[in-house]
Structure of HRDC domain-containing protein:
Amino acid sequence: MLRTAEAFAAGSGPIAVDAERASGFRYSQRAYLVQLRRAGAGTALIDPIPLRSDLSELSTALDGAEWVLHAANQDLACLAETGLTPSELFDTELAGRLAGLPRVGLGPLVEQMLGLSLEKGHGAADWSRRPLPEDWLVYAALDVEVLVELRDVLAGLLAEQGKLEWAKQEFEAVRTAGPPPPRAEPWRRTSGLHKLRKPRALAIVRALWEARDRLAAERDIAPGRVLPDSAIIEAAASAPASPNELSELPVFRGRSQRRLTGYWFGALRQAAALDPAELPKVAPPADGPPPVGRWPDRDPDAAARLAAARAAVAGVSQERSVPVENLLQPDLLRRLCWSPPADGDVAATLRAGGARPWQVDLLTPLLEPALQARS
């Protein structure tokens, strides 16, 4: 590790950075491989596991340099767990979006901008596996091989379009973003939940989801590999009255699940014992405006404001070749149109909602008249 740190400290220019996790295999989102490349230092593939995920020795060597990542918001958290955090960032995926490029995956971007083809096939692999196969390591090294060159081409394109300052503000927002707040009721993300409309069935989903999450965290296995969502929905819909009935359901009749029948049925029993007042509501707790489809009935003027605002943002999107969602967060636009600022200060409301200065400057003159629309 010391030699790697010395080599990268002696290198020059931006540092290409990537990390491989084991999403879909492990409960944790830790980094199982960290890839680095810098001019004068070459490429380094670092296994953080034997180092107990502590790469703080390397952090000093990388400090002050611009990091180049693709889809940085996917990797910054797991890199921070190892002690690595950038002081400056360039995100090639986000740069591609702001430049209006049609395909912003790393492979398509490299092919379009550099005329090269990257090896495919291991992005969704189980990177917690040891030892890692040699072809996986080659794939991982290629992910950082041309990142800096791609960064230079994209930066030049953004400068030509007058968007480089926009990009810098976006990169800084990604770099400094904190972890997202925990969801109030994460179990409501269970696939297939829409099929259930009774509170008692929802209570079973919640109980099984929470039991699965505890077991997955304890074993460091992805929850879907412990028990698939489809099995949770099936159990909630049928509400088996005994362990034997539960073990006859699809998935639960499998050998690995039969060993856990008592554990899963305990969750069902807890849900069955809840008082009516303890059951979850059919509709999730409201956080923000109602669904847009209800606006014409609930507040026709708000629906008119949203239509006018969306049209204005869509016009800018087409004119500037920037996706609508990158011009302004859709949720912020909805909140603004549902409850316009009483003092009329649209710019302040946008800033308070997390909009960057370039977005505020670009959109405020267009949103102010849109918020005057009436049905």
Notes: The mean pLDDT is 95. DSSP finds 20 helices and five strands in the chain. The longest strand covers residues 12-20.
